[in-house]
């Protein structure tokens, strides 16, 4: 017969786990154990690492079972009552991870601000020279990559509109039209609607119509959008 230890983890009013420990694993069981119990008060933090070690280490698990033979022979189960930790522990690994995430976000915000300033300048010049509009489009693509890293859907949509604006300046009206329409439609279907983003869509759409009108009014131009 495979030796087993029945374990209950509680805080006195609520049972957090009922489990069976054998030489192969520690397995949670749904039913409440009615066996005679031996009560042990333990620090909650200690129990966390204790259970983790029982789960991953076969050597530790078998050693624990051997040293608890007296409980097995008497037919008792082990009840562990959780106590408040005597000392607050600092999770240095998680602290380092959060620190890196904060630093990364700060740097990304900084980069995005610079790209926005630079992109705005080239976009303004793009109304007069195509090469500046093309540069503004490249900057908006880089902004999109940064926004995707930041994980902000509103900023991502704005970057798409910036790119659509650069397409309008280089007379790529059809592609710009599709981008504006998609961003506008997605925003209307979102749970929280960004009114400013909708107004941006309408403003860039008005520019598209105006630029397309000027384009087709020039001699030898087709009335269809490119």
The CATH architecture term of the largest domain is Alpha Horseshoe
Strand arrangement across the biggest beta sheet: 3-2-1-5-4
Count of spatially separate domains:
2
Kindly provide the name of the CATH class of the largest domain.
Mainly Alpha
Number of distinct helices? 8
InterPro entries: DUF4807 (IPR032072)
Question: Can you offer a commentary on this structure?
Answer:
By secondary structure, the chain is α/β, with parallel strands linked by helices. The protein folds into 2 domains: 5-83, no CATH class; 92-217, Alpha Horseshoe (Serine Threonine Protein Phosphatase 5, Tetratricopeptide repeat). It is built from 8 helices and 5 strands; from the N terminus they run E-E-E-E-H-H-H-E-H-H-H-H-H. It has helices at residues 44-56, 58-67, 69-74, 92-126, 130-150, 153-169, 173-188, 195-217; strands at 5-10, 15-21, 26-28, 36-43, 76-83. Helix 5 (130-150) packs antiparallel against helix 6 and helix 6 runs parallel beside helix 8. The protein is rod-shaped.
Brief sketch in words of this structure:
By secondary structure, the chain is α/β, with parallel strands linked by helices.
Primary descriptors:
226 residues, alpha/beta, Serine Threonine Protein Phosphatase 5, Tetratricopeptide repeat, 2 domains, five-stranded mixed beta sheet, 8 helices, DUF4807
What's the helix and strand layout?
Elements: E1 5-10, E2 15-21, E3 26-28, E4 36-43, H1 44-56, H2 58-67, H3 69-74, E5 76-83, H4 92-126, H5 130-150, H6 153-169, H7 173-188, H8 195-217
Parallel strand pairs: 1-5, 4-5
Antiparallel strand pairs: 1-2, 2-3
């Amino acid at each position: 017969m495979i030796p087993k230890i029945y374990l209950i983890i509680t805080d006195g009013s609520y049972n957090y786990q009922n489990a069976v420990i054998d030489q192969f694993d520690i397995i949670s069981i749904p039913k409440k154990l009615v066996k005679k119990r031996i009560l042990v008060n333990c620090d909650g933090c200690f129990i966390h690492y204790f259970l983790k070690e029982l789960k991953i280490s076969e050597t530790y698990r078998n050693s624990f079972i051997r040293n608890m033979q007296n409980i097995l022979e008497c037919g008792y189960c082990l009840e562990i009552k959780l106590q408040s930790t005597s000392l607050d522990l600092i999770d240095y690994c998680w602290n380092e991870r959060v620190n890196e995430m904060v630093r990364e976000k700060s740097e990304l915000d900084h980069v995005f601000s610079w790209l926005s300033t630079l992109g705005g300048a080239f976009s303004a010049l793009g109304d007069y020279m195509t090469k500046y509009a093309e540069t503004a489009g490249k900057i908006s693509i880089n902004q999109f990559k940064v926004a995707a890293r930041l994980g902000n859907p509103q900023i991502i949509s704005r970057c798409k509109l910036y790119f659509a604006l650069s397409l309008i300046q280089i007379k790529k009206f059809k592609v710009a039209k599709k981008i504006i329409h998609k961003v506008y439609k997605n925003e209307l279907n979102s749970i929280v609607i960004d009114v400013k983003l909708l107004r941006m869509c309408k403003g860039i759409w008005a520019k598209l119509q105006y630029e397309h009108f000027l384009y087709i009014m020039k001699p030898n131009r087709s009335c269809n959008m490119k």
